[in-house]
Amino acid sequence: MNIIDSIKNSVKNYPEKTALIFGNDSLTFKDLWKSIESSSSFITSLNGNKIISLMAENSSSFVIFYLGIINSGKTVHLIPPEISEINFRAQISSSNSSSIICSSTVFDKISNFESINIPIFQFNDIPKNIDSKLIDSEVNNFAYLIYTSGTTSAPKGVAVTHSMVNFTTKNIVHILKYTNSDIDVLPLPLYHSFGLGCLHTSLYVGSTIILLKNTNDLQRILNIIKKYNATTFAALPATLSKFLKFNENDLIDYFSSIRLIITNSTKIPIATISNFKKILLNGNLATYYGLTEASRSTFMIFDKNLTNDESVGRPAPNVQIKIINDSDQESETGEIWIKGDNVIETYWEKIFNDKNLVDGWLRTGDLGYVDKNGYLYLLGRSDDVINIGGEKVLPDEIEKIVKQIDGVEDVAAFGIDHEIFGKVIKLHVIKSLDSNLDKSTILHYCIKHLEKYKIPSKIDFVKNLPQTDYGKVKRFMLK
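Request: output the structure for the sequence above.
Response:
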């Protein structure tokens, strides 16, 4: 079974129900399916291999062609529209894509790239009504190919199978109780796994999805939630924190119909969690932990009566997690390994296999521990560990302290070379708007609250930190 089967079921059971809303576009399941069939027919007519690249911002056309490519028996290669020319070329070469389908905005960008030797088609130039009899019924194992965001190194190609999508989506539905009566607001980009997983979930249960282009206009998001009496909302932790600048009583009113806000496992400030516990009078905040290679491996629903808010939850059904130390032995604290039907069998480029995949287990590179009740806690990345004269320090230990200082908007701690100690700590600090914070204030606070070897040797104020689309700091870019 794949996601196309879910759409067919919805077309059969409630063809006139609204499936997708985007701006002024509103498609019933019957209309959506008709457009999918038409796009599939066009894609089937293209010559070339089984990989078709899709590069666009959120839109109805994105959804239609994403599903159309899958329905045609091919694999969707998802490319972020903001990708650099160098990375674009690398992905096209690595994926062996035979064609690119894109928005007009993206076309204007990539048409200026040199020596693109495969056809490029704009959404608006593709005929809307093509004979659906041309659709190829051949089954393809892979649903989509996506390149990881790369917080510590160059992105890796991850090909996700239909069975992985089905397994993960069923777990989301089971744990977070999605139904066809839900109205889901989704402003996250569909070319990344978080947003894509939310789309799959809506299509699986036959709910109505309200797709937005981005999360920049917070007031518009609130208005949309209120207008449609939305029941679920997906957002990044940073977006949720920004909402807290609104009046609390106003937020309680705007979110009164929401039964669930789902976010991902990028560090969620404890204050954000506690505030949304109060704001969501009729619902819950939830998060998950996973990678593109192992989506939605744990789930955490922040119960208003529990205090384990720093956890990313327990393993999903039929997903195993173990903690391995430097000696490759199971231990209380160490690297997180994942096994389950949500885990890839191989990377697109097979050179990564030996390092990250061992007997069905995925070595995540994340450090953490599991408490006595089975809850997983994240400590940081193994690549990020800073060795200071033999003492191993995680950046998060320092960042949590520095973020307590008034006037600190964000901070990244990392190691720089030192002749005697090997490494010492450097901070990049973003000051809050209109803050008069100075370096000596930060240093004195660190001296008071940190062990001596964790005290930063250098502090720089910066305007921004290099981050992935999901707010994870690209530490390999810090110097």
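The longest helix spans residues 29-44.
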